[in-house]
Design brief:
The complex is a heterotrimer. By secondary structure, chain B is mainly alpha-helical. Chain B is built from eleven helices and two strands, in the order ααααββααααααα. Chain B has a two-stranded antiparallel sheet. The chains are: A mainly alpha, B mainly alpha, C alpha/beta.
């Protein structure tokens, strides 16, 4: 068992927690974004890295949860627990439905089908105007009150809130990955036929991984809605799904800490490069290509093979 | 709902489907031979439109615009396949990220070269105007699109079914290893198909620029349509691309006309249904 | 800031002026930082570029400084994406320490920014974002609109159509989002009060590229069609409208963006004769507009549009407010008050004042597309001077009605 990603991850968490109070509020909000995107990337890693299923529609669960929070918090004044539970449940149910269609396919077909299903959610977000406010999006989503002395509406408490959430998600997903269930998933990734011959219910394992992954993506979506105070169809679109894939591929699939690192790199890259040049899309495109050509197994993957 | 409504809407769906066929047939062929999910395919459509526009500005010739757009993108397609995609064969995730990287680069280059204003290509006078027949009104340009798509579809079918290279392509689609075993140079076939697919999409882009226009963002707007077509029709199948385009053209059109509030749902939901019943699409085999 | 303190600082400055760097007033000599959001990538990049150019032009004309302080503009790309716009605003406010935030193009960006700038107490102006309620039912305290409210030009347009045409039954087709609802709704409100009828409303999704399914539905027994599209949708709609053989039968009226100068140069004869309403036209005949047009064409290499005029005039507006506070932009309350008090007599779009809700009172122009000297232009055929966003209604009565939407005003005459 390779411990390096865990050591790295814990180090990063502690470092972020220590440094945070000394940061200006803008870098702090970026770090908050990193924490949230890390949860999303790690949730996809369960599918892509551990189960070998490249989903191209992960924004659907992220967005469905964000919309659930947006609608409940603005129209029903729902609080912390309601929003959190509703968001995660909506995402998990969406994933459970989509999984029924998608899990039968493998490889490229799986990719195309998840892409198309993701478009269904985007289509609803965009067109079901009476529920989602369409292109205008849902504005003024309040951050929850936890009954703590610190209000989450200021950057520092919210950062710690997101950091703790990300740490919990990491711990939960890590436990899952090391459990017998997780080991079976890895077995399926290596050889479905062998696992089937050994008597494992391959479909059920893949399906459960799909739903769990969707639920954690939903958790990230809940945090995102609170963080931005705003939900729009952009959160559900294809580019968001693809960017998540890039985060996982960049950091190294199947390592959890790697995708989180990938999330950090992409968030900072997008926000810093676009300050210096209008041509940042060119650079982002080059990053996609460069990662595939020079670090096909991701940064952590490359570190690992060097040992 | 009058007869005019049904006739006009059916024709509109048909002509939109014809345009989608030009776009999606290339995507489907590329997938069939190379198993590449090409997310830059919408970019070929957009770039084709832009190159056609530039040719039109320089020469004033619509025919040259069609040829120029197709040729330029064939060259770009060849370069992409040769220099980048070939080394990723079999790596689905790598291909996806690579082609999306190209799509981003193409998007930004298009903005740099052509600016962000929306343009449209004006087809020659003989292709404008409206034909009235019975209860329907049929813009000549849309009839032209249908004719072009039928001609290209027929040529593709003949080429695949009746020629030596067609046989080689079909062999490569069915079983690449077997094909190379019997002496077919699969990499060369792949290259040819990739170039053809890119050229077809670009050709569609020039034709499409006559009524959809060409503008930044067209690439990612049209891409999902191409995907739905090949998913519904079945990856790698030419008849699938034909049926899929017609189906999607009609669904999209009637969906928007009859249930505007749910227009995307009426497009994607039947697709999900087909997939639930037949995961490889209507004509897919694998 | 009390008057004595102001006097003290002025006195100090006067005495310290001969010295190179007066240590007592570093803030006064530091540049005034203005954050400017615009979409520089994605589908709206060209409009973003127009916005940046208009702003730059005005600042260049005044030598880049006001009240003895240099103006530093920090442009950020919002990608036309509300989440990115928020991100970039945080960067501008927290890291760059701007004193004024401005720009933005899409309504959803406006709605996303509103709670943020109010919480930050950041003086903000919107030169382009027009969503009605930002200065109506849910007014943002810290946002001053220097552009327009969406329905503002459409109220007089409804009256103009009643008085000057025989069209009484109009079919409407618009983009399916707030901007579309507010344009069509504003027209419908006044038009139906005066005895006209909107007999049909069709809403087309924002990413429509084939208009055929919608064009086939338009009622052929209407007297005219009112359309609202922007950007490339406008270009395609007008073209496909003619191709479907509708132009000869049903005259086309529109919201101002249907023929604005970012799309008009790419249009052909199909646009001739279209009548639209907006608070600006590039073809407007006044000395300030002539000067602006000439300077803009020289610097940007293309004709001015309502977007470039918006940011040009917006820059002037901000500069006037900075002058009014004597350059002390750090006093945010004073700065906001000054922004709300600006009164310009001679802008390129005519005289401008602000109402109590932070929206300009300005002329509305009825424009008709004509070909002049080989080029298409929006010739002004009628002017409604000093139009308020509330038209002739009392603000409180106006705001008791719901915001114009998909369902309001109800379509009584639709079948």
């Amino acid at each position: 068992m390779n411990r390096r990603p865990i050591v790295l991850g814990v180090g990063a968490l502690v470092a972020a927690a220590v440094v945070a109070p000394f940061l200006a509020s803008y870098p702090l909000t970026l770090l908050t974004q990193v924490a949230i995107m890390a949860v999303l990337a790690m949730s996809l890693d369960i599918l892509l890295g551990y189960t070998g299923l490249p989903s191209l529609g992960h924004a659907a669960y992220f967005g469905a949860a964000a919309y659930a929070v947006g609608i409940l918090a603005t129209e029903r004044q729902a609080g912390f627990v309601t929003c959190l539970v509703a968001g995660v449940v909506v995402a998990a149910v969406t994933a459970a439905l989509f999984g029924l269609i998608a899990i039968r396919a493998t490889g490229t077909y799986f990719l195309m089908i998840t892409l198309a299903l993701g478009m269904v959610v985007w289509g609803l977000a965009f067109r079901w105007v009476s529920l989602t406010k369409g292109d205008n999006g849902i504005a003024g989503v309040p951050r929850p009150e936890l009954g703590l002395p610190w209000s989450l509406s200021s950057p520092l408490p919210f950062f710690y809130f997101a950091l703790i959430a990300a740490a919990l998600a990491w711990a939960a997903l890590g436990t899952l990955a090391r459990s017998p269930f997780g080991l079976t998933l890895r077995g399926i990734r290596e050889s479905e036929t062998r696992m089937r011959a050994l008597g494992y219910d391959v479909w059920l394992h893949k399906y459960l991984a799909f739903v769990i992954s969707g639920a954690f993506a939903g958790f990230a979506g809940v945090l995102w809605a609170w963080y931005n105070g705003f939900v729009s169809p952009v959160d559900v679109q294809l580019v968001t799904s693809v960017e998540t894939l890039l985060m996982v591929a960049l950091g190294g699939p199947g390592t959890l800490a790697g995708p989180a690192l990938g999330a950090a790199v992409i968030v900072f890259l997008k926000n810093f490069v676009s300050v210096y040049t209008k041509r940042w899309l060119l650079i982002l495109g080059a990053v996609y290509i460069g990662v595939i050509l020079f670090a096909p197994r991701g940064v952590l993957g490359a570190l690992r093979s060097r040992r | 709902m009058t007869a005019e409504f049904w006739v006009t809407q059916t024709f509109n769906g048909l002509s939109y489907g014809a345009l989608l066929f030009l776009l999606a047939s290339g995507l489907s062929l590329i997938f069939g031979v190379m198993r590449v999910v090409n997310l830059a395919h919408g970019s070929y459509f957009m770039l084709g439109g832009y190159v056609g526009l530039s040719v039109m500005w320089r020469t004033g010739s619509y025919v040259l615009a069609l040829i120029g757009g197709a040729l330029a993108l064939a060259v770009i397609g060849i370069a992409m396949e040769r220099l980048f995609l070939r080394r990723l064969s079999g790596q689905t995730l790598g291909q996806v990220l690579m082609t999306i990287g190209f799509a981003l680069i193409f998007q930004d280059l298009a903005l740099l070269i052509w600016g962000g204003d929306p343009y449209s290509i004006r087809p020659p006078a003989m292709l404008s105007g409206v034909v009235t027949a019975g209860p329907g009104r049929f813009p000549v340009y849309r009839i032209f699109i249908v004719v072009i798509a039928v001609v290209i579809g027929a040529l593709l079918w003949l080429a695949l079914d009746r020629t030596r290279i067609g046989a080689m392509i079909r062999a490569a689609v069915d079983d690449p290893e077997m094909a190379s075993g019997v002496g077919i140079r699969v990499p060369r076939v792949s290259l040819a198909v990739f170039a053809l697919g890119a050229a077809l999409a670009a050709f569609g882009g020039v034709v499409g620029a006559g009524f959809l226009g060409v503008y930044p963002g067209l690439d990612f707007e049209i891409l999902p349509y191409a995907f739905v077509v090949v998913i519904v029709g079945g990856l790698g199948s030419l008849p699938g691309a034909m049926v899929g385009s017609l189906l999607v053209g009609l669904l999209d059109n009637f969906g928007k006309a009859l249930f505007p509030e749910l227009s995307y749902f009426t497009l994607f939901a039947p697709m999900a249904l087909i997939l639930a019943l037949k995961p490889t699409g209507l004509f897919g085999r694998v | 800031m009390t008057r004595t303190r102001v006097l003290a600082i002025v006195a100090l400055l006067a005495f310290a002026a001969p010295l190179a760097a007066p240590p007592g007033a570093p803030a006064q000599s530091a540049p005034i930082k203005i954050g400017f959001l615009a979409p520089l990538t994605g589908p709206f990049a060209q409009i973003g570029k127009d916005m940046v150019s208009g702003n730059e032009l005005y600042l260049k004309e005044i030598g880049g400084q006001v009240a003895g302080r240099r103006i530093e503009i920090i442009v950020e790309d919002d990608e036309g994406n509300p989440a990115t716009a928020l991100n970039k605003s945080r960067k501008l406010v927290d890291q760059d320490k701007i004193s004024i935030l401005t720009g933005g193009m899409l309504a959803n960006v406006g709605y996303a920014l509103q709670p943020y700038v109010d919480a930050q107490k950041m003086p903000t102006t919107f030169p382009v974002i027009a969503a009605d309620d930002i200065t109506q039912r849910k007014p943002a305290k810290w946002i001053v609109r220097t552009g327009w409210a969406t329905s503002q030009p459409m109220h007089p347009f409804g009256e103009w159509v009643l008085k000057n045409t025989k069209y009484r039954k109009i079919a409407a087709i618009g983009m399916d989002y707030a901007f579309g609802y507010e344009i069509i709704g504003g027209f419908q409100q006044v038009f139906e009060e005066g005895g006209g009828q909107i007999v049909q409303r069709i809403w087309a999704p924002l990413n429509t590229n084939d208009f055929a399914p919608f064009l086939a539905q338009i009622r052929r027994d209407a007297d005219a069609v009112l359309a609202l599209f922007t950007g490339r949708l406008a270009l395609q709609f007008v073209k496909q409208y003619e191709e479907a053989g509708l132009k000869g039968k049903l005259p086309l009226l529109g919201g101002g963006t249907l023929t604005d100068e970012t799309v008009l140069p790419q249009m052909g004869d199909e646009a001739i004769g279209l009548i639209t309403a907006l608070h600006y036209s590039q073809a407007l005949d006044n000395p300030a507009n002539a000067k602006f047009n000439k300077a803009f064409e020289a610097s940007a290499g293309k004709i001015a549009s309502y977007y470039s005029e918006a940011t040009y005039t917006n820059a002037r507006w901000i500069v006037e407010a900075i002058k009014a506070v004597g350059g002390k932009v750090e006093d945010r309350d004073a700065m906001l008050a000054a922004l709300r008090k600006v009164d310009l007599k001679d802008t390129a779009r005519g005289p401008l004042k602000v109402d109590d809700f932070g929206n300009p009172i300005q002329n509305v122009y009825i424009r008709k597309v004509e070909r002049v000297g080989g080029k298409l232009q929006n010739t002004v055929i009628a002017t409604y001077p000093g139009v308020s966003q509330f038209w002739k209604y009392k603000p409180d009565e106006y705001m008791k009605r719901p915001l114009y939407s998909r369902d309001y005003p109800p379509c009584k005459h639709c079948q």
